[in-house]
Specification:
alpha/beta; 21% helix; 6-stranded mixed β-sheet; 7-stranded mixed β-sheet; globular; Purple Acid Phosphatase, chain A, domain 2
Length: 278
């Protein structure tokens, strides 16, 4: 791996953190990843970090303490109503920007990193998801109009089901943002690349959680639901091995263009999760 050039920043983006197992993996491995890959900023999707659905103010403090600069989310952001009260005083937690106007929270934020302003946009897709949200493509256009005089360092977390919708947004924003990464499906893809125009892209970052569960949850109830087509209660899987996955993107701070993207994936066999949850 080549060293980071002067005038460049490296931003680490981590996929959906699932429950206590995902949080433990994040806490254990992020310091080493930051040091090994010379990371300047960390963006993490935390919408599943509380028992597999939602997030709490306490978990937000945990993420910030462990080195996260911004936490993104998606369709499970409303699961814990307690988080509604977090937003009036904070802009480091995002909900999708194309949610209906008037809902709590913000869908875009900025923060300073080594003298450069970084913007983060959170969007949710519509294919096989909620129909009653605004178009993510038009929402992105509108937000870029707002951001273009502020910074050219812009990262987008696109939380949606299908590879086609994620790829379409990547190509739609190619040359306009520094990076577009997909979340929600919890399965890391191997298609990381720099699109024409200098936009880094990966279809899905993957997740942090139990590797042999199903998307970080216990597999038995989910299999039962497939077999019987009856409602079941999902539960977080806390059995090893565990996985942490994501990618880092290196950008030129002058142009905002990405110059490199590299996947990160760590599998940990140690059983150090105690089962405590939010």
């Amino acid at each position: 791996m080549q060293g980071k050039k002067q005038g460049h920043l490296r931003v680490l983006l981590i996929g959906d953190v699932v429950g206590s197992a995902g949080r433990a993996m994040f806490q254990k491995h992020i310091p080493h990843i930051k040091k090994t890959h010379n990371i300047d900023a960390v963006i993490v999707n935390g919408e599943n970090s509380s028992q597999g659905r939602g997030i709490t103010s306490r978990i937000m403090k945990f993420f910030r303490h462990c080195g996260a600069d911004v936490v993104t989310s998606g369709n499970h952001i409303w699961h814990n109503k307690e988080i509604y009260g977090y937003w009036p005083a904070h802009e480091d937690l995002l909900r999708p920007a194309n949610f209906p106007s008037g809902v709590p929270g913000v869908g875009v934020t900025t923060f300073m990193c080594n003298g450069s302003l970084i913007a983060v946009i959170n969007l949710q897709g519509r294919v096989f998801m909620r129909d009653l949200i605004d178009c993510p493509f038009r929402a992105a256009e509108s937000l870029l109009t707002y951001l273009k005089h502020k910074t050219n360092l812009i990262f987008v977390d696109f939380h949606t089901e299908t590879t086609s919708e994620k790829m379409a947004l990547g190509h739609f924003l190619a040359g306009k943002v520094s990076g577009v990464v997909g979340t929600h499906t919890h399965v890391q893809t191997a298609d990381e690349r720099i699109l024409p125009g200098g936009t880094a892209f990966i279809t899905d970052l993957g997740m942090c959680g139990s590797l042999n569960g199903m998307l970080g949850m216990k597999k038995e109830p989910i299999i039962e639901q497939f077999l019987k087509q009856m409602p079941v209660k999902f539960a977080e899987d806390i059995e090893s091995p565990f996985v942490l996955s994501g990618a880092w993107i290196e950008v030129d701070t002058q142009t905002g263009k990405a110059v490199a993207i590299e996947r990160v994936r760590i599998v940990d066999d140690e059983q150090y999760i105690d089962g405590s949850s939010e």
